[in-house]
Write the structure tokens for this entry.
Amino acid sequence: MKRTERKQLKENELATGLNRFLRWVKKHEKKFMAIALGLVALLVIIVAVKLLHNYQKSREASYLSEVLALRAELEQKPENLARLEKMAEKTRYGRLASLTLASYYLEKNDLDKAEKILSRVKDKGKDLIHYQILDLYAQVLVKKGNYDQAIEIYRQMEKEKPKLYPLDVVLFHLAETYEKKGDNQQALNIYKDLQAKFQNTYYGYQAAFKAMRLEGIR
């Protein structure tokens, strides 16, 4: 077969194949359009979710700033208390306001109000705010003399080992609770454990001093 004939044959085959492909594309055109539109819709959803997440973060930051501002001026502006209470009850970020309110009432030694506010939100979420609320709630219980209930909360926090909340803080407060209850041996054991495992932290140092004092009492 001559070279020109072979070339013509290849061109004919290529043209035939291309025509078949174009016919196949046209036949499945609606499917391609649906897939393309689906991909576009998916991309829009991903972008929307990302924008919404950033928006929520900015809203939460704005809310936190407002709560802190209200708390900072609370002594000079008693009317801020009503605003904080309203925010604690009605907003989606109410735990922040609840934590702030409870700490205020604890400072004022109004333990019943502090406990009531914290008990309303203590079982919501598993984030940093959740563990801050639990810690403060246990501190309120200790002030009221409910040592066993506070110990139960700290033991549960210890068991969960939250990554968002320092374990040395939890253990130190647990040891202090045992000490206030009068169980010095349990307190001493925890202080020593803290001293060994958290040597370079503030609570590790404090635990060392506490352990020395308790050992001097025995």
Notes: Residues 166-218 form one domain.
